[in-house]
Input
Amino acid sequence: MNMLEENGKTSRPVRGSAQKALSLSVLIPLLALIVAVLFPLIFNLSGYVLSLILLAMSYTIVVVGLNILLGYTGQLSLGQGAFFGIGAYAFAILSARHGLPFWIGLLAGIMVPVLFGFVIGLTTSKLSGHYLAMVTISFQMIVSLVLNNWKTLTNGPDGITGIPRPSLFGLIDFKNDLNFYYLSLIFVVIVLWFAYRLKYSRLGRAMAAVRENEMAAGVTGVRVYRAKVMAFVLASGMAGLGGVLYAAGSNYISPDPFGFAQSVVFLTMSLVGGSGSAYGGLLGAVLLTFLPEWLRFLKEIYIAVYGFMVILAVLFLPQGIWGLTRILEKYFRKSQEVEALELKEFLPKLEFASDMMSVKGLSKHFGGLKAVDRVDFTVTSGEIKALIGPNGSGKTTILNLLSGLYMPTGGEILFDSQRIGGRRPEDIAALGIARTFQNIRLFGDLSVIENIMVGQTCRTQESLLSVAIPNRRARQERNLIRSKAMATLKFVGLQDKADWSAKNLPYGQQRLVEIARALATEPKLLLLDEPAAGLNASETDKLVDLLKKLNEMGLSMLLVEHDMSLVKSLATTVTVLNFGQKISEGNTEHTLNDPLVVEAYLGKEEEAYA
Ligand code: ADP
Ligand code: MG
Output
């Protein structure tokens, strides 16, 4: 909060090219909306077509929700049909069987699936890929069984009839399909608007980071479980809302349309339309609702043709049909101009007394292997300490322990006089420790600038509410995030690569982006795992300059490195590991000449000469 106010001066709304990009992303949906409003007025739609449109609208809401789960967060669910059904039934039971008002039924139709989604999200947060798919399929099966067999609640296979539609103070009667169409349209627009804004929000970036690389997301300060559970909650709530509109739209429900087959249909709609975007959900839902109707003339072979078209779309359009618009986006979406901000303006000013981090008796065992064995060392405030040792000596394992990726087997890690051993990566990042990886772990599909903006997640607080309701504070925060990210990018000299996909950068530049992303978390201590590995001589020189400059700004570092000339030119002290144990420590020059160290690196002297 303070940070925002302090920097209020530098975060005025941005003018210029940002405005142009905005106008297009507003103009196109606005045109679509006008068409949607006028369409049924101009064309005299038959009752049948109108009911198909209503169906497509309820599906759209479900599929947009699934896109948040699958496309945004990378969580595969084959149980959206169940959430759709729970929403429809919760609503129908309350409104049709118990006579409660429509709006209360609607609320229950959203909240009951949300509750289930919350529990499923929580319990499956460690699962992904086909394991997660299996759990959601099982959930789907259970829900189908319950809908069919719990007769006192659901009326079994006979279903529930006489489901009411709302009326607005007796003024507008939604029993009229056209009126109900406009009510549904309002819901569709709200859901699309929310999902679209979510993607470019703090939470949306966190979700994308989780999708692209869960481990890197955590150490970059993203609350990984929160993002996953939130995705489940939003997806199930939207599925529920879709279910309510479906039930109210068709007046009658039975368990059939909420089975596994429907879950597969939702997944197909998401993939065909494009799971990465809200509009892809709309496209997929509408297209696959109407396609079977358009293919009617093919009679018996229609299902084969339908299947073939779906397979073609999934095979050749990995980002769905909406993904094609990404090609156009390049021409329209100019990079946002941001006001200049210097890195040193926001890197934390340090007030550490002496020891910033002290490690005592730290151990990590993998079965019988003592990868790290009772290691002690300290990093004093403002220093660059090197951690060296032959391959397999436990250096990366130590960084993993320090950044919360591993739970220590024993020992203690104190940072800023707090115990951090075994705490979550995102909490440690928030305390002020950032890191890079030996094998670069960027968020490959995100742009360079977005990669770095993820680093600001733990320093900002834009809530879900401000995704739904735009406000000045949130907008200022967004601009500040962008200008800070740009400052770190400028610092590593890659400002002209801001809009590149991270995965398309050459290796050396990817290393720099990873450092910039770590800096964007505003760390006090930076852990670097072999930052010069794979760099050529001139890139290494540039890296040394960069790290020196950072150190002059007050940033402390723990540097794991094999290149001894780099260690000599940067580190004041060195800790040497061999087979998980500390074998030497002290002033750099002196320690590198320690016979024990020379021996560890070269093997025994006789062997070295042999
Ligand atoms: P360094 O980074 O110094 O080259 P590491 O810390 O990566 O070494 O590895 C130290 C030892 O721990 C190696 O023998 C490695 O095989 C083992 N190790 C590292 N991570 C794991 C793991 N997750 N499971 C089992 N063994 C591991
Ligand atoms: Mg290593």
In short: Confidence is low (pLDDT under 50) at residues 1-20, 604-610. The radius of gyration is 28 Å. Residues 366, 369, 371, 389, 391-397 surround adenosine-5'-diphosphate (ligand 1) (CB under 6 Å).
